[in-house]
Design a protein that fits this description.
Helix content is 29%, strand content 16%. It is α/β, with parallel strands linked by helices. The strands form three sheets. It has a seven-stranded mixed sheet, sandwiched between helices. A two-stranded antiparallel sheet has the order 1-2. Helix 5 crosses helix 6 and helix 7 packs parallel to helix 8. The protein is globular. The chain starts with 7 loop residues before the first helix and ends in a 19-residue tail after the last helix.
Length: 292
């Protein structure tokens, strides 16, 4: 389980997480510092080409893989954490909250989920979503053909076998092909939908298909932090979702991810996989109690 535990670097970098603007959030000092790299588009990054026949075309000129610099407040907060020497999330005094716990609270509040577990990567969160919902060795998992390599890798890491579902012209999962694949692979009990590039498909139709075929729906929200579906933050149609804090995403911690769910059993299992054994769950603030 060592590689699944929240790494020292994640805890240290958690105070470097940055969000330029997350409206309607009342952030504590540490939590604000933990959110200060949310991507924002500035005038210098975007140009328009008025010569295009079908309206104005907007193009991003800046290298989108170049993260924003860490603000001074974030650097100072990171230094204050390092000065304590407590870089491991469970090495906090009784009654204190680790920086990771404070980040989990703010993430859960922002997305509207009841439970949140911080992990070393979104790939680990995706893998644990499947393990915590009963994926068996060799089990088939239906997932987008259009996705990032980390997704099928997480399926393999969880012991599953990826079965690819075609995308439609909107670059989201094709519901018709999902129906076909659910019939072709009746033993597939997991459907993992990736919201690639922040595009969310017809999740109600996908959920209905999963219900008809008794499949568990999971959401990869690595690209969709801040994206709403039907007036609610993405990640609420499936039983669990995963978001990313890797440098190219909306929150920058170098590496990192979060598993989000409203299901107490999934949250409890994930916390144990991540290292919260021997009553360490008491040092989490966004997982259920010891009764689970």
């Amino acid at each position: 389980l060592r590689h699944l535990q929240v790494s020292h670097s994640f805890v240290a970098h958690s105070s470097l997480l940055s969000v330029t603007k997350l409206k309607k959030m009342a952030l504590s000092k540490i939590a604000f510092t933990a959110f200060m790299a949310m991507a924002s588009v500035t005038n210098g990054m975007v140009v328009s080409d008025p010569t295009k026949t079908f309206g104005v075309r907007t193009m991003v000129k800046r290298d989108i893989k170049t993260p924003d610099p860490i603000p001074l407040e974030g650097i100072q907060e990171a230094v204050s954490v390092m000065e304590t020497g407590r870089l491991y999330r469970y090495n906090v005094m009784p009654g204190e909250k680790s920086v990771v716990s404070k980040c989990e609270e703010e993430i859960a509040a922002y997305t509207g989920h009841k439970y949140c577990v911080g992990l070393n990567s979104c790939g680990s969160a995706i893998m644990l979503m499947m393990k915590c919902t009963g994926l068996e060795q060799g089990g088939e998992v239906l997932s987008n053909a259009f996705t990032f390599g980390a997704v099928p890798s997480a399926i393999e890491h969880a012991g599953g076998k990826a079965v690819y579902v075609e995308s439609n012209y909107e670059h989201v999962m094709c519901v018709e092909d999902l129906e076909k694949k659910l019939v072709m692979y009746p033993n597939a009990k997991h459907v993992l939908v990736s919201h690639m590039r922040g595009k969310v498909g017809d999740m109600k139709a996908i959920a209905d298909a999963c219900k008809r075929h008794d499949a568990i729906l999971l959401e990869d929200c690595a690209h969709s932090l801040g994206v709403l579906y039907d007036g609610e933050h993405s990640g609420h149609i499936g039983v669990a979702s995963a978001i990313s804090a890797q440098s190219y995403k909306m929150i920058n911690s170098g590496e990192g991810g979060f598993l989000l769910t409203d299901d107490p059993d999934i949250a409890a299992k994930c916390a144990v996989y991540a290292g919260a054994y021997e009553s360490l769950n008491s040092k989490h603030t966004t997982v259920p109690g010891p009764e689970y």
